[in-house]
């Protein structure tokens, strides 16, 4: 007969193992009117979102506002997210896009405040267009589509890792480790192997954006 001491406590069964799992659980409980898990998710995931936003070039004060906006957006869309286990990726992608928008607004404001040269018939000045031309946009779009097509052919673990790594210019391996449950010391080597697989797939498809 097995004694009570030999039985593992019930609380150890089925506990969410990764931040992604905990995010899914928090969303499901929030939909049922229980907010404790969502409050804990905000506390736990805010540093990851803040790092993602800051990595896009957003200043500290604006980053705080952007992250708050991301959580507000999650509340608005809580009942429309079809796959709960995708909620962490949804948060990261939303944070990155909001950061880009914040950077764009800041740059637009700076351009509007810049002193423009005098424009007269005798000394006309033409401001250079800071944006890439349409050919550059087209090439970049084609390259991005090729990479994403190849990415979908990789194992799910590689897809998840490369997507998270791509969300920040300077990815924080500790945050990625918390998000996907991969040891920090394994992320670099695994990333290298996944990138090698991606290049192989791109070569098989006859496309290689790295050399375009």
Describe the 3D structure:
It is built from eight helices and no strands. It has about 210 residues and is mostly helical. The longest helix has 27 residues, at about 85-115. It is globular, with a radius of gyration of 23 Å. The termini are far apart. Mean pLDDT is about 75; it is low at about 1-15, about 125-130 and about 130-140.
Number of strands: 0
N-to-C series of helices and strands: HHHHHHHH
Indicate the overall shape.
Answer: globular
Radius of gyration, in Å, reads: 23 Å
Mean pLDDT: 76
**DSSP strand (E) fraction?**
under 5%
The major β-sheet equals: none
Number of helices: 8
Q: Span between N and C termini?
A: 69 Å
Helix amount, in percent? Answer: 55-70%
Uncertain ranges:
1-13, 125-129, 132-139
Outline the fold blueprint:
Blueprint (H helix, E strand, L loop, with lengths): L18 H13 L4 H19 L5 H18 L9 H27 L20 H18 L4 H11 L6 H8 L3 H21 L8
What would you say about this model in short?
This protein has helices at 19-31, 36-54, 60-77, 87-113, 134-151, 156-166, 173-180, 184-204.
Which short descriptors sum up this protein?
212 residues, globular, mainly alpha, 64% helix, disordered N terminus
